[in-house]
Every structure is written in structure tokens, then in C-alpha cells.
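Notes from hallway chat w/ T.B., transcribed later so I don't forget. T.B. wanted the structure written out for a chain they're using in a teaching module, and asked if we could keep both sequence and C-alpha cells in one place. Agreed to drop them here.
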Amino acid sequence: MAGNPPILRRLGYLTPLRHTGRIGRMENPTRFPDRPLLRIAVLGSTGSIGTQTLDVIAAHPDRFHLVALAAARNETLLREQARRFNVSLLCLGETEARGALTGTDGLCELATHPDVDLVVVATTGAAGWEPTLAAIRAGKHVALANKEALVMAGSIIAVEARERGVVLRPVDSEHSAIWQCIQGEGVGDSHLTAPRGVRRLLLTASGGPFRNTPLAEMAAVTPRQALAHPTWTMGAKVTIDSATLMNKGLEVIEAHWLFDVPYEKLEVVVHPQSIVHSMVEFEDGSLKAQLGVPDMRVPIQYALGYPDHLPYGDLPRLDWERAQTLEFQPPDVDRFPCLRLAWEAGRLGGAYPAVLSAADEEAVCAFLAGTVGFTGIPRLVERALAAHQPISQPDFEAIRLVDAETRAHVREWARSPGPLPVG
């Protein structure tokens, strides 16, 4: 808040050491004396993206000032973060706590607070779309790590952002890569629309831990196996979505809205090494790609520091003196039907993507709880999509209703014995 001492004065030149949470000294911090501190609110600060965002903020006390924090339920870590950064604007989304705002209204209040310049939306699930829209309507910069906001309500959120000149700064590594690749191609600061001359956008996928698992063994996959991602460290929901490739399907729908491109110009390529984060192919056959060691602090930092590529001492680098092998192959939609379902929902439009998102979130919860097996996730999602009555142009109330109804149905189906495998 305005009365708080700037983080620069409070911490000195301090930066985190990897993910330990400890603090170390920066010997030669990069100075930007002509820039005011960017005042940041982080929604979802106790999750994987949130904690890494705080690492980035602490690494650049001359650029960023943390003024607000929000978490779903981890009050202990939220309080620790508040003490570390001297933050008094707090929100707990799902529980009540002394001195903290609560619920969706609390998230929206933080997102629109006059002391906030940029809102990092790092919540998971449906909790992110209402504060995202509130921030846009308040004219805030938005760094978006929440997939469901654009998946569920992209037709509203993306349109409002463009009308109000708000850039939705993507935090996902794939969308950040595309964003960086189209820089210098006639794209203005007020929008992310893919420029003329783009033939297609190629989003890369690692393929997850089951890329080569025989199809007959997929039903026996356990939560522990599915949570062991080969290249990325993420929260549980996103990690399971990566294992089913639903994550990539959601990213396809996101890219459709972020870059204003038809689905015919979007493609998914499996790239096990996760070094190429995405590519842009132009009409003349040339391609631009963004490469780097998989570390979420890189796209987070670019979203916060845009348009600058800021230094960060301990970020890993590619070793070009060592032989590199980069593999690419098409995705197997028979092995990963969630990717096919996401494409179908995106093309159908209306409220189908909201059904997809809600059904997947509940199905993943059921899998992690042991109620259904791994292959039960796409079956629950497919059943929800089949049961949906189309709505051509849903408003927010319609989306809320569809979200609630879909969740109720999927919870009931997951509890009931039937054709869904329990694995």
C-alpha cells in the first residue's frame, strides 16, 4: 500500500536463491532509475507459479513492489509471504481469516485496488476468471497464468481486453514463446493479435510421463505416477492435465483468444525435451522459435518486466558446447483423448469450453482422490460435453450456471458405479 516502505528500501538489493525461499545478495543489480516501481498483486501466491513469481519480484527490487497477496486456503504460507514482503493487502479465497479479504469479491477487490498496477492471476481452476475481468475493467495490466479464465470466458475477457487496450501478458511458457516470436512483426503494445503473414502457431508439448506407455496400461496409471512430470515442476492440477494432454488442449483454446487466430492455424507438436517452447510459422515457410531450459521463472519475469529481458543470476542456461537432440512428433489422440475433446469444445464454442474446463477440474479431483482411474478423466469430460445443451453466446451468468451444473453432474457420475474405469 501507499504507506508501506518500498521493497527496495526494506530489502536492499536482495534476490532469492532458487526455490529455497532464502535470500541472498545481488552484487550488481541492474538499475532503471527512470522507471517507477511496478506495483504488483499476486493472486494464487502460495502455488507453484505464485511462489516463483515472488522469487522474480524479490530478484528485482529496483523494478517491482509487491503490494497484495491472495491464496485459496494456505493461510500459514500466505502470512509468511506477507511478513517477508511487508504486505498488508491479503485475501483468502476459500476460508475466512483475521485481517484478510475473502472469496471472489475479495479477489476482485485486490485486482482493482488503486495501489495495484499489474495483477498476476496465478490461481488454478475457475477462480481466476472473475478477478481477471475485474482487473481489465479497472485498466490494470494483467499477467495471466490461469488457463481457465480464457477457456471459460474468452469470448468476453479477450474482447474486453482489446476494447480497453489491456494486454493480457501470457505467463504460460508456450504462449510467452509465441508472444516473443511475434515481437517485431507489426504487433503493437495494445494487443497480441498475430500479425499478417502468420501461417500457423505451433504449441509444443512434452508428451508427459506416459508418452510411450502402452495404451492397454493407461487405465492402471496411479496419481503418484501421473504427478511425476519429466521436465516441469508444477502444481497437482496442471501436472495431471499435462499427463492427459488436457493442458495442451486448454492452451490451444487460450491461444485462439490471446492471439485472435482461428483453430485451423493452431497446431500441437510433441517435443519431449521441452527446450523449444513454441514456434510461429510464416507464409514463406520460415519459422521463429523461442528456446530455453524449462524454468517458469523465465516467462514469469518476461510478463512482469515486458518489454525488457531482465537479468536473473541463477537461471539455468542451455549448454551449447554439449550435443543437443531435439525431437518432434505429432500427438497421439488415441492415447490422449483429452486433447481431441479440447479441440472439439473449442471449435463448438459457446459454453462448451466452460463445460470442458469444469468437467476436467472435477475429474482430476476424483482421480487424485482415487474415485476414478486415469482413463476415467476423459470419459467424464466426454460425458459432460455430450450432456450439454448448446448456448451460442453465453454471458457471465450463463457461464456460472453451466460451470455449477457441470461440476455437480461430474461429481455425481464419479461417485456412481458405472462404465467409468476405476483403475
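Follow-up for T.B.: The longest helix spans residues 396-415. Might be a good example for the class.
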